[in-house]
Amino acid sequence: MSENLSAEHLETLRYWLKYELSAALLFLVPWFTAIFIVIITIAAVIFTPFLLKVLFKENKTGWIIAFFIMAILPAVTVVLFLLFKINPELVPFLVFVPLGGFYLFCFLLKISIDDWISEKRAYIERINYKKPEVKFEDLWPRR
Fold it and tell me: What is the pLDDT of residues 109-138, one digit of tens each?
């Protein structure tokens, strides 16, 4: 079994999360229009495969489940509302629920990814550390 002994993918994820979170600031702009909603939706859709790839690579099943609960499940619910035409006047407001969940997830991930990187580096350091070889004669010298 070959393990990935590098924290590079985590550092790349941390780098891109800075930009994802800046896109989330568009939620705070009071004059946002449909074009901003489209932009942040496209950014979320493009970023999701990379995000999931890193989470699967690091075997973070709790985070994967949280992602599906916070982002995918609300998106499926909005699509079902659209398909079955359930309360159509509510649908424009429901678009914000999956986006808000996605960007909240990215914020929480950004907070904890620094710990992941330091743990990964410590693990790599421990694996690469070689103990000095001790000979039997060194422990009990002959007289």
Answer: 988 998 999 998 888 888 777 666 666 666
Rounded Cα–Cα distance for residues 29 and 39 (Å): 14
Give yes or no for a contact between 39 and 29, defined as CB atoms under 8 angstroms apart: no
Task: Decide if 48 is inside a domain.
Answer: yes
Mean pLDDT of the chain: 80
Instruction: For residue 135, tell me if it sits in a domain.
Output: yes
CA–CA gap between residue 128 and residue 76 (Å, rounded): 45
Read off the DSSP letter of residue 132.
Answer: P
Tokens of 89: 């006047």
> Is 1 within the bounds of a domain?
no
Q: In terms of pTM, does the model score above 0.85?
A: no
* CA-to-CA dists, residue 92 to 5, 69, 98, 131, 133, angstroms: 45, 20, 12, 62, 68
In a domain, 20, yes or no: yes
